[in-house]
Amino acid sequence: MPVSACLAAVFVLTACAAEESAAGGPGGAAPAAAAAASDPYAGKTPEEIQTLAYEATRTATFKKVRGQMSAEGRTGSLELAFANVDCAGTVSGDGLGKTEVHSTPEVVYVKRDADTWRAVLNGTKAQEDAAVDRFAGRWVKLGAEREDAAAVSYGCSLMNPHVLQQERTPGLTRGAAATVDGQPALTLTYPGESGGTVTEYIAGQGRPYLLRRTETGQEASDLTYFDFETVTQLRAPADSEVVLPEG
After folding, report:
1. Which of 19, 106, 162, 200 has a Cα at 20 to 30 A from 55?
2. Under a CB-based contact definition with an 8 Å cutoff, are residues 171 and 193 in contact?
3. Share of the chain residues as helix, strand and coil, in percent rounded to the nearest 5
4. What is the pLDDT of residues 152-200, one digit of tens each?
5. Considering only CA atoms, which of 180, 21, 203 is closest in space to residue 112?
6. DSSP 8-state secondary structure symbol assigned to residue 43
7. DSSP line for 176-221
8. What three-state secondary structure class fits 101?
9. Alpha helices in the chain (DSSP H)
């Protein structure tokens, strides 16, 4: 899937799903004073380094991602945690408020406050009042097979960074050394799909995780992956906090 389509789905489809069923800033990266004393990627091509980074990140049993994205005239932010196949965190977008999400392969839970429900609903005042009374401040439980559930939880696909990857990566080159949240990193750069440049920051020590990915251009994004392998599970909402949608 093109990167632009992925970013649009994370924020635009979230609003659509709300109609059918009823956030931390990115870590900084700065030029490093010098490269790491030893190069764990010596002799590897940029393509080989990128493959190592994406696979190490995909297969991590726990990780978090935070950042901002822009697509189709909207800007949004997210902060999500991934434990094996479970995903939990928040997604927000321009004029859409903040949505809490807890997603598993079988069930997707969504929670919004009253103002956020009103921001994403396009019904009459009476319909909005009814939805707010029923759903505001409570987790809404949706079967994962539902179209609206898939839309709301689309950001969870970022547990696999391959979703951000173009089918081909023309012009992939290795750049200067850098640091991300104090960790040494190397950079890979290539032209983005919206006229800008993609820069990927790969861990220079330990496992070759993707630490950060930025893209400039019309559909800019800045995502940071962090807290690898620090937690083993995510707690699902308690039954007492959950309400089933109508229909």
Report:
1. 106
2. no
3. 30, 35, 35
4. 787 899 999 999 886 667 889 999 999 999 999 999 999 988 889 999 9
5. 21
6. T
7. EEEEETTEEEEEEEEE-TTEEEEEEEEESSSS--EEEEEEEETT-E
8. strand
9. 3-21, 46-59, 114-120, 125-135, 147-152
